[in-house]
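Reviewers of the previous submission asked for a worked example of the structure-prediction workflow described in the proposal, so we include one complete record here. The input consisted solely of the amino acid sequence. No template or homolog information was supplied to the procedure at any stage.
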Amino acid sequence: MQHSSASPFSLWAVPEITVAFLSFALHFVWEFIQVPTYAEMAVMPHWEGVKICTSATFGDVGFALTAFWTTAAASRSRYWILAPRIWQVAMFLAIGIGLTIGFEYYYTEVSERWNYSNLMPLVPPFGTGLSPLLQWIVIPLIVLSLSRRVVALDGQ
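From that input alone, the workflow returned the following structure tokens.
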């Protein structure tokens, strides 16, 4: 079935929109689940925690789009997501993980904007929290899988 250009669902055929929307939804949930692994997050006023988690989620979406567009440039197609090769998935993940390590290091060690609680296992060599690293393995794989299906369905 073809969607007309006037169809509100035609935007789902744009890979970046699908990646951004699904990334936001899934990272938002993850940010709240990992609250106890960040110092003082579990005891701060509710609205402050919501604002911090929402801000972090927008950062995650930025990482996802950076990883998507960099992989698209290397693939010479924004539609690489429809039939991703192993190197494309690896590149997408590596960019997100690299950004995560860099930003977590900066915010925990340099600017000290946040700290991990005793519940956060740390991964050498930079002392990156295990939860944000897992976040950038688990969530992007789900986003890629779901995005592929959504973009393919909408493009039919």
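The chain has one domain: 8-154. We consider this example representative of the routine output the project will generate in years two and three.
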